[in-house]
Amino acid sequence: SEGFSEGIIRAIAQTPDGYLWLGTEFGLRRFDGVRAVAWEPPAGQQLLSSDIRSLQAARDGGLWIGTFRGLASWKDGKLSHYPELDGQVIEALFEDREGTIWVAGWAPSVGRLCRIQGGDIQCYGEDGRFGSGVTPVYEDSGGNLWAGAMNGLWRWKLGPPRLYPMPDPAQRIYALAESDDGGILI
Q: Order of strands across the sheet with 70-75?
């Protein structure tokens, strides 16, 4: 009501410089502790969509920006665009302990999970294995990477991918965490 942000805040991340970044349905905002101001990309550049769905502050100081139509990253005053992910709704971003960025979401009717490491992008899911979407991604204390998909919970690494179907296929996974005894909370 005091103009902090227009629309729904869908994602929040804090970069190493202390700024909080807010992903909203109407764009990206940077909060310095006093004011939340609209972020503007450099002249001649733009995000593919102002509908920001996910954010990930990376350990290298960069900010990964998932939108309704693709992926970008912002680092050292440079906006990078990832055309391999154009048209994909980026619902979740995650940096694992090895520095790999995991990108989860969906492209028209197909869930996708992509990994970005050293500029190399590899995507999975074109075969329909995730159903229509992938949302949360989580790494447990043992180094296993988990992805919540429309058809259940996937353990993506360590070892070969394995699906753990949900008891009710109509249930969607919105968040993942680890319990004190090492179990995965859905």
A: 52-57, 63-67, 70-75, 78-81
Q: Which distant-in-sequence residues (6+ apart) come within 8 Å of 171 by Cβ?
A: none
Give CA–CA dist 63/61, Å, rounded: 7
Q: What is the pLDDT of residue 180?
A: 94
Cα-based distances in Å from 126 to 5, 7, 70, 85, 179: 36, 33, 16, 13, 32
pLDDT at 121: 96
Q: 1 CB contacts (<8 Å, ≥6 apart)?
A: none
Question: Tens of pLDDT along 143-184?
Answer: 999 999 988 999 998 889 999 998 887 788 999 999 999 999
Question: CA–CA separation, 58 vs 100, rounded Å?
Answer: 10
DSSP 85: G
The DSSP letter of residue 26 is T
